[in-house]
Amino acid sequence: MKIHRPFLFLALSALASPWALGKVDFTRDVRPILSEACFHCHGPDKKTRKAKLRLDVPEGATADLGGYQAIVPGKPAESELMARIVTKDEDDRMPPKKSGKELDSKQIEILKQWIAEGGEYEVHWAYRPIRQAKPPEVKEKEAARNEIDPFILASAQKSGFSLSQDADPTTLIRRLYLDLLGMPPTPDEAAPFLKNPSEEAYAKLVDKLLDDPRFGERMAVHWLDLVRFADTVGYHSDNFMEVSAYRDYVIGAFNKNLPYDQFVIENVAGDLLPNPTPMQKVASGYNRLLQTTEEGGAQADEYVTIYQADRVRNFGNVWLASTTGCAQCHDHKYDPITTKDFYSMAAFFADVKEKVLGRRNANYKFPSTEIDAWLGAEDENAQSKIAKLKKQREDLEKALLAKAAKEPYVEPKLSGMPEPVEKVWIEDSVPANGRAQGNSPWKFVSKPEPVFSGQKATVREAGGLSQHFFDGANPKLPIEKGTKLFAYVYLDTINPPKQIMLQFNDGSWDHRAYWGESKISWGKDGTVSRRKMGPLPETGKWVKLEVDASHVGLSPGAQLNGWAFSQFGGKVYWDKAGAVTVVDPTKDPAFSLRAWVNQQKNAKDLPPKVQQAIKVPEEKRTDAQSKDLQTYYLAYAHEPSAKKFAQEKAKINALKNQEKATANVKGTRSMLVSEPTKPRMVKILPRGNWLDKTGEVVQPAIPEFLGKLEVGDRRATRLDLARWVVAKDNPLTSRALVNRTWKLFFGHGLSRRLDDLGGQGEPPTHPELLDHLAADFRDNGWDVKRLIKKMVTSRTYRQSSLVSPGLRQKDPTNRLFARQARFRLDAEFVRDTSLSISGLLIDTIGGPSVKPYQPAGYWRHLNFPARKWQASKGNDLYRRGLYTFVCRSFPHPAMVAFDAPSREECVAERPRSNIPQQALVLLNDPVFVESARALAERILFESKGNDRERLAQAFRLALTRQPLPQESEVLIELLKQQRVRYKEDPEAAKKLVSIGMKTIAPNLAVSDLAAWTSVSRAILNLYETTARF
Amino acid sequence: MNPLIQNRRSFLAHAGIGIGSTALGSLLARNSAHAASDTWPANLPSNLRIPPKAKRVIFLCMAGGPSHLETFDYKPKLKEMDGKAMPKSITEGQPIAQLQGKRNALKCLGPQHPFERYGKSGQLICNQFPKIGSIADDICILRSMRTEQINHDPAHTYMNTGTQISGRPSMGSWVLYGLGADTDNLPGFVVLTSVGGGQNQPIASRQWHSGFLPSKYQGVNFNSKGDPVLYLSNPAGVNKQDQRSLIDTVNELNTLRNATAADPEITTKISQYEMAFRMQTSVPDLMDVSKEPKHVLDLYGAKPGDGSFASNCLLARRLAERGVRFIQLYHRGWDHHGGVKNAISGVAKRVDQGSAALIKDLKQRGMLDDTLVIWGGEFGRTPMAQGSGRDHHIKGFSIWMAGGGVKGGMSYGNTDDFGYNAEENIVHVRDLHATILHQLGIRAENFTYKFQGLDFRLTGVEEKAHVLKEILA
Fold first, then answer.
1. Record: contact A857-B150, CB cut-off 8 A
2. Which positions 172-201 of B are in contact with A (Cβ < 8 Å)?
3. Cα–Cα distance between A733 and A749 in angstroms, integer?
4. What average pLDDT does the structure give for chain B?
5. Binary contact (B214, A894; C-beta < 8 A)
6. A236 in B contact zone (CB under 8 Å)
7. According to the model, what pLDDT value does residue A482 have?
8. Are the CB atoms for B96 and B86 separated by under 8 Å?
9. Would you say residue B289 lies in a domain?
10. How many CA atoms within 13 Å lie on the side-chain side of B146?
11. Do A974 and B249 touch (CB under 8 A)?
12. B61 assigned to some structural domain
């Protein structure tokens, strides 16, 4: 046994915490120390436990270790733990030096006092049942506005403080607008309250804002961080996925005040509800928001593992504020979550139907009226537009059929040998469903550049090897006996390539033909993977290249899904490409009505009349039926007639596309939703290793220490899981939600680690208040607006955010909440604020994500395919920040500068940095310059007074207040100087005011507008403009 | 991005307990540009501190996965086995990428280029890289690298952050967080990119992201075309003097506001506007290499403004001179699934000279001693043929390091006869990370940051990371 050394007598160092230390509280004072310093080796994880000592449970701490025990309740002097933490012997001292952890004298004193007071353990605070605590009795009762205040007052008073005085009405109304709507009030919105800032007026204002549609947008920003909502798949090619409807669901859910328990169920298991509504299905898209991959060579089994872990991590973070990630490889070191728990949780999500690798195509289409109704934004306009387009198209279709009805038709006969016929596959676009890719995107050009046929050709200029190609086309191009593949090529005379190559994909790319030098190295010479066809064709003219399919190893029956146009150097145009196949017209649906009818027997996409006629055997058809069939065939499917009707068909197609486009905006929405399928088997993966298949098979189950689902013999489902999350006895759910919501309105959570209420989180500063609010929230219909109203009407909320010297010293990080917090706005709200002040903001709610200006070339590192950001047009340039398209690999740089996350993992709390990029964005990003100009125009139009009066108007718009005299001086100085400057250089003035797509209002002197634009830029760059006080 | 003018309040709020809170104040302090190397890490908390050898890192990321078998790992046995079946005993049960479908018909592909001995040390290097050969005595080749991710995107993430899971800080961010930078005109962590020589695999900005560390530690991607830094240029019609007046006005008004608010955020904001203004001059100045003497341009083979890897190498030296802490150059051109022979020759033409020139230039300026240069990709390539190319491979590959206290003219570790498995002195990615931190004077195992209740490290929270003592001078 270790020899005990006498204890050092430790003086209590000055407390950094504002809390006066009375009796030691296990949860608040002791457990964090043990967790941080001891549990890594003496905690729940069996595998890393040292010396068989377990300190996270009392049985372990008091176990007999051979004549001594770690903790002897009431007797620090006999407790080995104390001896080991104070010993001077480095070899014996705990925690060991190499752990990098050290206990300071205060922590040692706390442990000593705790043992002396009996060394009692408590269940970790967040796992205890939520107790409905009564507000404490306090002095200055009158200071309390609602039941939140006594809790805050009590702790403040204990530390010798009270609450700070109320903020002035201007600060307060700005705070409330920024907190609840994400943008400041307009002067008109602010005026009534500023005139009469009474209690009733404030209460009414709160109700009004909670009822404002902008409230849902504001809340969604926070929510979308949690569930890692983005418009792209994340990994590697990072292609688009259609989930924007989920964003709209969230906005609507907050605006309608959907009870939170219902919200949870719809997110986790909306698809499993009986007869789910379209919006419930959309909500279930939560299960599809994770990052996925389509990288070639990715291994499905590995990604099954990655996805299931991602889902479990996010589930724990979002709904329970629990970290589970470490249990993927080993039992949690700080919380009682085992590896088995982790994989049992994963099993809940094993029923989500998905292709592991590949494109995330939307799998659910629904009328956009569903979303409009959900958002309270029905739009009848679009429906009537679609109806009009449809009418036009149907008229054209009728005319086409009337024209076709006049054409004669005779069934073809075979006279002699079958004829070779050209089947065009690539003309003016990639074939249907083909995925266009290349070293750079496909570039289409039209005349006067060389074009062989149709409207367009493709062109590519390169220094070395370069190509464009597609794969995945469907329908595929069938290879038959004698098929010749062809393509038209035009080599630039001045800059010809050294080599050109065609590559064909029938599942593999190993079918190549080339002309010219041998610079491109793919394939093996003299085999089908690399056939030399001859010298380069003549430059400066269109030449048809032909390749016998058999020559490159494509046998009859093969089907092409991809085609590559490759070159080494030079400039090359490509046009019409496809196959020439010998056709027996009597058997080919493109030439024979009979053959076509045969082929279309089960078709469901033909007009009903035609479908019916097809089902009738030829000899039994009425004359009318035969005529209908023939007419339809000639109009749409008969190759030799195609030219005659080309114009009509092009018009019809254009209308169809227009309809589709309108429908996409308003008619229908599509979405990647979750759909149940037969659950995959889920095994525990030893050490998280997906190659190790030896682990135990597990069934869906919640973490064992939190209980068991009562489902009898059947397999538990996501719906059971969701219901458990919102069960009354779940200790985590409402605490997590209340804590995060508190943070939105007070700057910090009651427990500071928003995403971890577990052992390594921080115990709440006001545990009774947290429990009080959590119980109240849970027991009153999970009513989010009610909760928020309670928070923002409290006196605690309405305090000033100015810090008195005493408070600053005693409570620098505001753990007492004896003042309000002040901070810079979130990225989206920085944008919204600027747009709203300038009047540019378009307040359309919901819809597909939009693309505001973004610096050119920012996406240049993306590939498969390479792509460019195409900025939206018109109104979509001025939408709120939450509608900006989120590309996970390259999120919008202006958002990134202000700490918007990339939405790859759950983010419960964004960092708030203060970096030079923020200055560069506000100074130079065109949208902020354009906002400044729009604000300048607004000032010049709305205020007819002198410069000072105009300046005052600008301040009211931007800051809800009048400028101070000194502030006016500074800005008037700038205005004067800039007026001179831009009068002298009208060209520069014109350039400045022309930034952005919004046209300049007429009748304004450009140099004056430019000078006011400078003043407006200054105002929009102020810290006060982008901050909440 | 720049840690210099720190916002102490939010820093403290986020730094948590990762580094003893008493040390935090000093961690923020900026070091003067030319402080002696034995003093600068003194700002680190004592439990992190070890004597530093390197002041900065230049990481030449050969993106796409260079074939070690046509660069630094000579395998005569594999040559003999060319076209023959790869022994199943080696490949069975191992992860495999695009060759998944051909698991049962894997064939060896011999080295496609000869190797030669270079330098006094006689290091074996593929003859397509004669310029790198000419610095053979300055570099230490590591032939026994291992990583855990077999696809490009996660493998880059693994190489940069030590895990496949997104949202973790990249190594540049970690280093900047620990050490700050020696510049107040430029970001402390800069990324440059170039392409050519093979398929351009995408690179996501997460590769230089600060993850859960404060955003000021993220890498800044410099562009060779357009604004070198996003939003750097003044708006049209606004000249330098206009911008200056504007910033003066903003700062004056912010100062006025702060008279009542007394908010440290505002103080920081004011200095950030100054920093932004300085960057508007210093970055274009940095990027303009046209005033470099001709012999220097020739050494690199750089043409001003061409955006090539060679030009980026020259910029890397200029960044290093200006006090940037971590510089990462991506060359996206190494994914050689087909035609590895010609592809290697092609990409060698693009990276060989620049890589070697950087080492020589740093050396002649006396900067190689305290600059750690690393050259390597996210993984290697299979000894097995994929047609005429090679597939992704993670069980053994090569990188090299130079300067910053690493021995030159040596190689470390070995793979088996096929170049498949790293066998001797296996170097895991976390060991590389630990070694980088070690050379910078940071004890990797204690260098943590608290996130979601856990002490995260660059070198991971699980396995032990080993500093490669044998390669250190």
1. no
2. 193, 196-197, 199-201
3. 15
4. 89
5. no
6. yes
7. 85
8. no
9. yes
10. 18
11. yes
12. yes
The total number of structural domains in chain B stands at: 1
Spatial distance between the Cα atoms of A206 and A215, rounded to a whole number of angstroms: 11
Determine contact, residues A28/A40, Cβ cutoff 8 Å: no
B150 touches chain A (CB under 8 A): yes
Q: Amino acid identity of B406?
A: V
CB A490 within 8 A of CB A595: no
Rounded to whole angstroms, the Cα distance separating A444 from A454 reads: 12
**Contact at CB, B215 and A899, closer than 8 angstroms:** yes
Q: How many residues does chain B have?
A: 473
Task: For tokens 């003035």, name the residue.
Answer: A989
Report the CATH number that the domain containing residue B310 is assigned in CATH.
Answer: 3.40.720
Gap between the Cα atoms of B228 and B236, Å rounded: 16
Q: Are A649 and A393 in contact (CB under 8 A)?
A: no
Q: Which residues pair with A502 in a beta bridge?
A: A513, A565
Averages of pLDDT over runs of 10 residues in chain A (1029 residues) are 32 36 79 88 86 88 88 91 89 86 89 91 92 88 90 94 95 98 97 96 98 98 98 96 97 98 98 96 98 92 96 96 88 86 97 94 92 82 81 92 91 78 86 81 89 91 90 82 93 92 92 93 88 93 94 90 94 94 79 86 82 90 91 86 79 78 73 97 93 94 93 96 97 98 97 89 94 97 98 98 92 95 97 97 95 94 92 94 97 96 94 93 98 96 91 97 96 97 96 93 89 98 97
Could B262 and A862 be called an inter-chain contact, meaning their C-beta atoms sit closer than 8 Å? no
Average pLDDT over residues B451-470: 88
ipTM, interface predicted TM-score of the complex: 0.85
| pLDDT for residue B417 | 96
Domain presence at residue B73: yes
Minimal CA separation from A652 to chain B, in Å = 39
pTM of the model: 0.77
**Which H or E run includes A542?**
strand A542-548
Task: Check CB contact under 8 Å for A991 and B237.
Answer: yes
Residue B11's pLDDT is what?
32
Which of A186, A196, A190 shows the shortest CA–CA distance to A173? A190
| Closest Cβ opposite residue B246 in set A298, A520, A1018 | A1018
pLDDT(B147) > 60: yes
| Per-residue CA distances from B302 to B132, B311, B360 (Å) | 16, 5, 15
pLDDT given for residue A378 in this prediction:
67
- In the stretch 630-669 of chain A, residues with CB closer than 8 A to chain B read none
Which DSSP category does B54 fall into? Answer: -
Is residue A726 less than 8 Å (CB to CB) from chain B? no
Q: Which of A238, A915, A964 sits opposite B204 (nearest CB)?
A: A238
Which of B14, B17, B269 is facing A911, going by the closest CB pair?
A: B14
* Eight-state DSSP code of residue A850: B
Q: What does the block give as tokens for A673? A: 């939703």
**What is the per-residue pLDDT for A890?**
95
Whether residue A323 and residue B445 make contact (CB cut-off 8 A), yes or no, is no
Domain range enclosing B341: 8-450
Place of tokens 């949202």: B167
CB B2 within 8 A of CB B28: no
pLDDT confidence tier of residue B14, bands split at 50, 70 and 90: very low
- Give residue A674's identity as a one-letter amino acid code: S
HSE of A28, CA atoms in CB hemisphere, 13 A: 14
B92 touches chain A (CB under 8 A): no
Q: Would you state the pLDDT for residue B19?
A: 33
Mean pLDDT of B391-409: 97
CA distance A1012 to A940: 8
Q: Of A521, A868, A967, A1017, which to mutate for an interface test with B (greatest number of B Cβ within 10 Å)?
A: A521
Report if residue B28 sits inside a domain. Answer: yes
- What is the structure's pLDDT at B292? 96
Which pLDDT score, from 0 to 100, does residue B308 have?
95
Interchain pair B152, A905: CB under 8 A: no
